[in-house]
Structure to design on (143 residues):
């Protein structure tokens, strides 16, 4: 529903469900922090893609973070140190807003870039699942 209808309220509800599920699963608990980071990154990226002016308190509510954590999150995204996409934006700390510059890339370049990111993220996910399966096998053998 996030990609089709841009339903951020539904995404927020699913984020809460996923967090509970991951934190209660023995095998996924080790990866809970990374999973939540990536899920928040995806929601933030989608939100910033369709909005040119982002209210930090609204984004904090969507990401289930405090206002300070959200501001640090956005600063990291603007600087390019978040591990995700870099935003061309300015942060208005006094007004608690992020003003995002209009995209300068063509639709073709955006699609190519999204496909590359998808390939990279898929490879990372595959690698993480393989590592998790290996750890489970070792754990089961040692029981």
């Amino acid at each position: 529903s996030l990609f089709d209808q841009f339903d951020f309220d539904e995404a927020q509800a699913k984020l809460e469900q996923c967090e509970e599920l991951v934190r209660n699963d023995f095998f996924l608990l080790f990866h809970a922090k990374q999973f939540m980071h990536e899920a928040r990154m995806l929601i933030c990226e989608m939100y910033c893609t369709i909005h040119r002016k982002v209210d930090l308190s609204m984004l904090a509510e969507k990401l289930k973070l405090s206002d300070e954590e959200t501001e640090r999150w956005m600063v990291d995204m603007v600087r390019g140190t978040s591990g995700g996409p870099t935003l061309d934006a300015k942060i208005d700390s006094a007004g608690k807003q992020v003003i995002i510059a209009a995209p300068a890339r063509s639709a073709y370049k955006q699609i190519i870039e999204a496909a590359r990111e998808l390939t990279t993220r898929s490879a990372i996910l595959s690698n993480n699942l393989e590592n998790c399966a290996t750890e489970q096998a070792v754990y089961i053998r040692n029981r």
